[in-house]
Amino acid sequence: MKTLHPDLLARFSSDVTTLCLGWILRRRDGHVIGITDHDRAIEIDGQVLDPGAGLEAISLSQTSDLRPGQAMAEGVLSAEALTAADLQSGLWNRARIEVFRFDWTAPQLGSVPVWSGLLSEVAHRPDGSFSAELVSLKAELERPIGRRIMRRCDAELGDPRCGVRETGGLTCDQRFETCRDVFQNTMNFRGFPHLPGPDALLAGPGAGPQDGGRR
Question: What residue ranges in the chain does DSSP mark as E strands?
């Protein structure tokens, strides 16, 4: 848990009007930028926050269970480091976002966390503004990890995992029999054709003599 400076807590408890919003955006390639809705650049906790992005977070929500919280962000793409071209090319997909408030007259006191999550879908408007969907870090718990275990192949016909180059207009239903008989490509089959099905799982003991598990 982050320890807050007592003077900062006192400022938040008073009627101070020098509070502003800060954003730290961390891309998956390690690139980091800072943005603030204040009118000048401010350094806080070793990170420079650039002005002029006009970001406004609304409907920030968190949950106490494992369901991911959600938020929406709206603003204008006026920050030089956050360009529309980079957003459209996917460089900021699933970038981590930290939202916090601080007193711009005393940034050395630190900040108060408001929300953290991941940048999801971005929609652009003709006037140059944008809206972005944010999801909390708990959304990572819903991301599939590893391969699915199933009888059929999970590769696409012609991709590097499949290895088939000339398809000749043929299609593949991703069954082992098709891979073997049509494409002669069983060495690259990416499924588990001998995986027991539901019949084997539901089958009870046989009616004949039992051998105690011996074969």
Answer: 19-26, 32-36, 42-44, 47-49, 56-58, 70-76, 96-103, 112-124, 129-136
Model's pTM, two decimal places? 0.54
CB 37 within 8 A of CB 20: yes
Arithmetic mean of pLDDT, 101-127: 80
How many of the other CB atoms lie within 10 Å of CB of 83? Answer: 13
Where are the domains positioned within the chain? 6-142, 144-196
Contact (Cβ atoms closer than 8 angstroms) between residue 90 and residue 54: no
According to CATH, the topology of domain 6-142 is: Thrombin, subunit H (2.40.10)
Cα separation, 74 vs 210, whole angstroms: 69
The counts of H helices and E strands in the chain are 4, 9
Give the total residue count for the chain: 215
